[in-house]
Task: structure prediction
Amino acid sequence: MLDSRQRLPLTSKLVREAGRLPTVVVTIENPNNRLTDAGVTVLQVAQNEGRPDPKAVLDALQGDFDRRLAGRFGDPAAGSVVMNLMIEGGGQVAASFLSAGLVDLIEWFRAPMILGDEGRPGIGTFVLKDLAAAPRFRRLAVETVGDDLWERYGKA
Result:
């Protein structure tokens, strides 16, 4: 979980289950004892504009995964294992990973409602120098889920 300031409540299910299921918090601050004492792994990464740097997040998670794998099976001789990671978050999290070029697949849900400028953007601040620099994706699938559409896009 990305949590720049380690605000995850100790009463949350993620923290309560941390002793049973690996729970990892990625932050830009020094690990907080209240989380680590509860069994949560806290990874501190470099920041970019006050938020975790996306590349640093992936590197830290890969390193943590490799350490866990080595702890279970010995030192992996072939090096790092390829990791698939689902990133679910707000518009700014989405924008930061898109801007870093770290998104290969988008799962997009659209509902038949209009929110206007009071709604939350699916992609936050995302500055392009020109249209040619925009990340390109191709639609792979569209499915109806109730009244919503579930769209899947792969990197072009």
Observations:
- Residues 13-73 form one domain.
- The longest strand covers residues 137-145.
- The chain has a mean pLDDT of 88.
